[in-house]
Automatic annotation (TrEMBL):
Lineage: Bacteria, Bacillati, Actinomycetota, Actinomycetes, Streptosporangiales
Entries under PROSITE patterns matching the protein: FE_B12_PBP, PROKAR_LIPOPROTEIN
Signal is among the record's keywords: yes
Record's protein name: Zinc ABC transporter substrate-binding protein
Residues of the Fe/B12 periplasmic-binding domain: 60-335
Keyword set includes Lipid metabolism: no
SUPFAM superfamilies, A to Z: Helical backbone' metal receptor
InterPro entries assigned to the protein according to its UniProt record, in alphabetical order: ABC_Transporter_SBP, ABC_transptr_periplasmic_BD
This protein's UniProt keywords: Signal
Native species: Nonomuraea aridisoli
Domain of life: Bacteria
Family in the record: Belongs to the bacterial solute-binding protein 8 family.
Secretion signal, residue range per the UniProt entry: 1-20
Length: 336
């Protein structure tokens, strides 16, 4: 777990712009910055095996995926976001999207190049995984960013040594740390409290259900992958699933996903299939593949094909919590 410690403040307080947009239907909101929050305190912490030092609350942050951009916006930090990366890969929720209208988009559907990222002059970068810093892909490495004076924070569940064992509740550690870094601890605490309450409510509803066998897959054309570890596995566990694929299986000893044959999935006869998609076209194509390839599978026969947004399975996103309920309600509608 990442641990945060305070060191003496080195610069003056920075006032937040108060933002108050309520999210219709799901109870989340953009939390106004409380009076006195945002003080420019310096923070040091351990993150992904590195020491991260932030000299005062960042003023030019970049969310390296829409999920991280959303979290910054919900903490009331729109005025401190200098760029939103991969913004065209996934739309922001409708209630926070207006807050990002004037924030530069960098990277399109992929992480930004080193040059594009540094062009917005960030002082803090928040990423879901370490992949976004792969120099071989032309992205800025963590070392290059640090040399440029940019602090880098990776979601706990996306750290290289945690990608196989990440849990949904890693998000709460991220919220504590981001709240500390930006001086918005109260706003972070509200999101944590709501998240814990949501998970507790789902757990209570599922206390007496007979668990269904559920396989999580990803389909790209005709390539079929099984998901058996990491945050994705924990999401299904919290949603009351009896996971067909699990971290203790040899196929997932080194990576959370493994390419499988249709025959091997068919032999498991899962009661439900959960699959992530990046847009409506991808969802339609995946449903067509699953229904035509496995017409006699219980999951297909009983119409338990559950699509979730690919953004919501990224580490360090509020979607990790919301899709626990989404999946649980579709698996066990009578429990809610």
């Amino acid at each position: 777990m990442t641990r945060v410690s305070r060191i003496p403040a080195r610069s003056a307080a920075i006032a937040n712009v108060a933002l108050a947009l309520l999210l219709a239907g799901c109870g989340s909101s953009v939390t106004p910055a409380s009076e006195g929050s945002g003080a420019a305190a310096a923070v040091t912490l351990e993150n992904c095996g590195r020491k991260v030092v932030v000299d005062g609350a960042p003023e030019a942050a970049v969310g390296m995926h829409p999920a991280q951009t959303e979290l910054l916006l919900r903490l009331g930090l729109a005025d401190r976001v200098a760029g939103q990366a991969q913004a065209r890969a996934q739309a922001l929720p409708e209630d926070v999207a207006p807050l990002a209208e004037d924030i530069p988009v960098i990277g399109g559907v992929t992480p930004p190049s080193r040059e594009d990222l540094l062009a917005v002059e960030p002082d803090f970068v928040y990423s879901p995984t370490t992949y976004e810093f792969t120099a071989e892909q032309g992205f800025a490495s963590i070392e290059q960013l640090e040399q440029a004076g940019v602090a880098v924070y990776v979601a706990n569940g996306g750290c290289k040594d945690r990608r196989m064992t990440g849990e949904v509740t890693d998000l709460f550690t991220d919220l504590e740390n981001i709240g500390e870094i930006f001086g918005v601890e109260d706003a972070a605490a509200e999101l944590i409290e709501k998240g814990r309450a949501d998970l507790d409510e789902v757990a209570k509803a599922l206390a007496d259900v007979d668990k269904l066998r559920v396989a999580q897959v990803y389909v790209d054309g005709t390539t079929l992958q099984a998901i058996g570890a990491g945050i994705e596995y924990d999401i299904l566990r919290l949603a009351g699933a009896d996971n067909v694929y699990a971290p203790d299986q040899p196929a997932f000893a080194k990576f959370f996903a493994a390419t499988i044959t249709p025959e091997s999935l068919a032999s498991e006869q899962p009661d439900a299939l959960v699959f992530s998609v990046y847009d409506e076209k991808h969802e339609a194509a995946t449903r067509k593949y699953l229904t035509t390839t496995f017409p006699d599978m219980p999951a297909v026969r009983d119409d338990r094909l559950i699509a979730v947004s690919s953004a919501d399975v990224f580490p360090g996103t509020l979607g990790n919590i919301s899709i626990v309920r989404q999946i649980a309600e579709q698996l066990y509608p009578d429990a809610f």
